[in-house]
Batch of 3 targets.
Target 1
Amino acid sequence: MNSRRLRRMVIIAMLGSVATILMQFNFPLPALPGFLKFDFGEIPAVLAIMTMGPMAGITVELIKNILHWFLSGSPTGVPVGEIANFTTGLLFILPIYFIFNKFRTTKGLATGLFAGTVAMAVGMSALNYLVFLPMYTYFLNMPATTGDALYKMIVLGILPFNIVKGIIMMVLSIALFSKMKNWIEQQRVKLMPE
């Protein structure tokens, strides 16, 4: 195994572990449903895609959610929350990569973060409506939320939660990039797959 590949694997594992720790310190946002928990676990995945590409970011998201499930368990017995969090992470980081990879500037990153926020907010609203909320109610053996109650939960809870989450991640990612731009570019040269 060449040293570049080994170094990538070690850094991805470390970023995945940091993301897991950050995910453990989740908390609800005021005025939004309590079951929606905010965490800073996407930041290491954003760092991974900026330095090593999309597969690194996806792997960080996967490690984070698998470890979180093992550490915290799931009230449903099935990792519905972790699957939703993994999907959220992908919807957020992949647009960042595709835009930032073409325009490696603060403006390019901001545009990617904005696109990631929109993709995450819209995508998770649809997926919660169609997949994740029905999965939760099914596995918890609860009556399904339907009609106006489901619509309000999506429009007044899930959509604003993901917009706020995206904005916070945008501010933090841009601040991180502005402080670490040279280091990120150096690591990209050293770590990006050949």
Target 2
Amino acid sequence: MNFTIPSSQEPLQTTLRRAGYAPEGRDQRSGEFAYVRRFTSAHYPRFHLFVTSVKEDSVILSIHLDQKRPSYQGTSAHGGEYNGPVIKEEAQRITSIASS
């Protein structure tokens, strides 16, 4: 799911850290910066967030929920949720934090 947050004086990485996200690096295929937010100390499930576009007044983010690790080595297929109430609620939470 894609959503937009307002740009602020605060660096984007700081805003995302306040929302509980840790940087994961750059996606090898898209070059987008990736961030994750885990629910527990386990690697999965986790929210996976990508910075798709940074504009002067806004930032476009893409978010999904990784339910489990990729099933087969060398693939990126995983049990992911890309839409739904949990994803929408998390996007609204991040937008609220970014707006404050």
Target 3
Amino acid sequence: MSDKKYNVLIYPTAETDLYEIREYFETILRTSPVPLFKKFYAQIDILERTPYIYPVVKDAYLQQLGYRMVPIDNFLLFYIVKEDEVQIHRFLYGKRDYLNIIGS
């Protein structure tokens, strides 16, 4: 087993998504987003060591770009692996039209 560790970059769009998720949980749902965020960061830790564990998405256009998707509760984490880097692009609610959001 390889001890290789990939460098994880969280893109500004993903940071904005995390901020909006936190705001939604705190202001609309009036609950803590901490349990969900712990799951997000646990997955990031996994991606740091095994980024190819999740398949490329099925959409042909996003596939061409190399997007992979991780389901986390009702959310989807989208990322791309380039060389020794994991680029996290989005954290989206699973019922959103992610093809239009990411593909545009």
